[in-house]
Amino acid sequence: MIGALGLLVALPATIKFRAHIDFAVVRRLVTGSLFGVPVGILLIKMVDTSLVLHLLGLFLIGYGSYSLYKIFRRRSGKPRLRANGWDYLAGLISGALGSAYNSHGVPVVIYGTLKHWPVEKLRGILQAHFVCVGIIVVVSQLASGFWTIKVVQLLLIIIPLLFIVIPFGNWLSAHVSRETLVKYIYMLLIIFGGLMFYR
């Protein structure tokens, strides 16, 4: 359900931020994700889910906290992982986490902050990647039998709420400065990590 909702939210956002999309980066990310999706399906079937979620949660809490610490100490590190080849690895991890835990956005957000992408570029790449990988993830989950009638019923209830949430999100992002938005991203990573750890 989360994977399907993420795809529906990403579609209008991709159209909105299309001018900031670096299609070469998106292509490499999606190529990596194609190899990562089956890895995620195997991961959820063969590895203890709680162990993976706890480790991933701890990593997100640590990374988000360290990044916020650098911001408040006014230490902006140099861009890292500059080579284009890292796009494929980020995509692979994104595809694996997306198909297993519907978390395909987290690796790309972290990757974009490591490369110091401008906020507009990060938004554009992230949303375009959400659409491409979202389609792959939803199809793979359908093929693997993860969907049930209950999922469809919940989607039909929740989808109308998107007509309220999406415009509110667009209004909020338009009224928040770039620096503040980056801080929010790190805070959300910490919160998301906490939710995964205590899940």
Quickly list its features.
9 helices; 199 residues; mainly alpha
Describe this structure in words.
By secondary structure, the protein is an all-alpha fold. 79% of the residues lie in helices and 0% in strands. It is built from 9 helices and no strands. The chain has helices at residues 2-16, 23-46, 49-72, 85-101, 105-114, 119-143, 149-158, 162-174, 178-197. It is globular, with a radius of gyration of 17 Å. The two termini are 17 Å apart.
From the N-terminal CA to the C-terminal CA, the straight-line distance is 17 Å
Largest sheet features = none
Fraction of helical residues: over 70%
Give the number of DSSP strands. 0
User: Helix- and strand-based class?
Assistant: mainly alpha
Radius of gyration: 17 Å
Question: Low-confidence parts, pLDDT < 50 over ≥5 residues?
Answer: none
Order of helices and strands: HHHHHHHHH
User: Any idea what the shape is?
Assistant: globular
Note the total helix count: 9
Tell me the fraction of residues in β-strands, as a range: under 5%
Mean pLDDT: 85
Outline of the structure:
The protein is mainly α and 199 residues long.
Question: Mind sketching the topology for me?
Answer:
Layout: H1 2-16, H2 23-46, H3 49-72, H4 85-101, H5 105-114, H6 119-143, H7 149-158, H8 162-174, H9 178-197
